[in-house]
Design brief:
By secondary structure, the protein is of the alpha/beta class. Helices cover 53% and strands 9% of the residues. It contains 16 helices and 8 strands. The radius of gyration is 23 Å and the shape is globular.
Length: 404
């Protein structure tokens, strides 16, 4: 089949040709936008799930919905080595410009607050070249969002931006990816600001996305965060949605899958959107003609698995040090041992007690803390509950047992 017409798109955050299985989230977000536009109270939103389930794709789709509603939008990605001020300021700069507020003086004032918020990160003795310039022509406002206390400053900043949106009957949505990577002070500030905004009724929401333990991160920062956000778990696709993700793009190119091929694809991908796209792309390329058959999928499987081993699994494995890789392999072995003994199901994240990992390595749990903490910071594992850890990447344990 013609590879130029191949419709499938495996890529980090790249929207697939058919965004299957996310109609519920998209529809609910449209309701949120309309309720806020009418002055109704709504909570900010947090999407959680393993890597490869399409959180970033969905986040971008929700942003597109807000743009169509003529909202101001901005997006940023949290990083463990970066504070919140600068990326958030850049995102809000975009959002304010998208609002199209007719009063230039009001816009300049709010942009001046954004600039003051951003520049407060630099210390008073820092050199000029180290002071970040957010590209805002308006002068920084003194005495607003520049106290140095991130919690106070963020409340003031979002209040001013939300007020500007209210003036023109629109809203502002801030999309925050990898939210679990925010520092403790920044997490606390985001929660406090969302709480204040919701109480004041201003048309501004935060839409965050992160790993499964993100709700625990937020709850540890502010106890009221459990009621502050609308949490949505993003999981793998069910069978009808996974089939649609394959069939709909193929139909647009006058191609088909046999029922047996779809059975084989779901067995191989388990419905994870990234895997669906990866296998779909290779199956299309190896199939001589339409329809794509079960034999085509079986021929494609080794190549698809090899690409995943390099680009999806391997790239993450390579980030780990030798000691960390030893810990990862022990996690995979511990999960398999529990499954074999009937002590627990082998789920896609392969959650295991930390004591089991220590037992596999013949070490005391305390001696493994440095490797475990480093893997947590790198986002390769997460702790959903005390004393247990799991992979952030589905099927990572299987990859470690068979390949690494």
């Amino acid at each position: 089949m013609d590879p130029i017409r191949n419709p499938y798109a495996p890529g980090a955050g790249q929207r697939p040709p058919e965004l299957a299985g996310r109609d519920e989230q998209l529809g609910a977000f449209d309701v949120v936008l309309e309720r806020i536009a009418r002055g109704r109270p709504e909570r900010s939103i947090v999407l959680t799930g393993l890597r490869g389930v399409g959180k970033t794709v969905l986040l971008n789709a929700l942003r597109s919905s807000a743009v169509r509603a003529r909202w101001g939008t901005g997006k940023l990605e949290a990083r463990p080595d970066q504070r919140l001020r600068r990326p958030l300021s850049a995102a809000l700069h975009v959002a304010v410009r998208e609002l199209g507020h007719p009063q230039g003086d009001d816009v300049d004032h709010v942009l001046g607050v954004v600039k003051a918020f951003a520049q407060r990160e630099a210390s008073s003795g820092s050199r000029l070249r180290d002071r970040w310039n957010p590209g805002i022509d308006a002068p920084a406002v003194t005495g607003r969002a520049d106290s140095g206390d991130i919690e106070i400053d963020l409340v003031e900043l979002l209040t001013d931006v939300g007020g500007l949106a209210a003036d023109v009957g629109k809203g502002v949505a801030v999309f925050l990816d990898e939210m679990q990577d925010l520092g403790p002070e920044d997490v606390s500030a985001v929660c406090a600001a969302c709480h204040e905004i919701s109480q004041s009724g201003l048309p501004l929401i935060v839409v965050g996305a992160g790993l499964p333990h993100l709700p625990a991160v937020l709850s540890a920062s502010k106890s009221y965060s459990e009621r502050l956000f609308r949490y949505q778990r993003i999981d793998r696709l069910d069978r009808p949605a996974a089939d649609l993700a394959l069939v709909a793009p193929a139909r647009e190119e006058d191609a088909q899958f046999t029922p047996g091929a779809l059975d084989e694809m779901y067995a191989a991908t388990a419905g994870y959107p990234y895997f669906v796209q990866a296998y779909g792309k290779v199956a299309w390329d190896v199939a001589p003609t339409s329809p794509i058959t079960v034999e085509d999928v079986r021929v494609a499987a080794p190549e698809a698995e090899a690409e995943l081993a390099v680009g999806f699994f391997g790239s993450r494995y390579e980030r780990a040090t030798p000691a960390e890789r030893e810990y990862l392999r022990a996690m995979a072995d511990a999960a398999a041992m529990r499954a074999d003994s009937g002590e627990g199901p082998l789920d896609d994240a392969e959650s295991v007690p930390t004591s089991d990992v220590a037992a596999v390595l013949g070490r005391k749990p305390q001696s493994l803390s440095p490797a475990r903490d480093a893997l947590l910071k790198k986002g390769l594992i997460y702790s959903g509950e005390r004393g247990r850890i799991a992979f952030t990447v589905p099927h990572f344990g299987r990859y470690l047992r068979t390949t690494a």
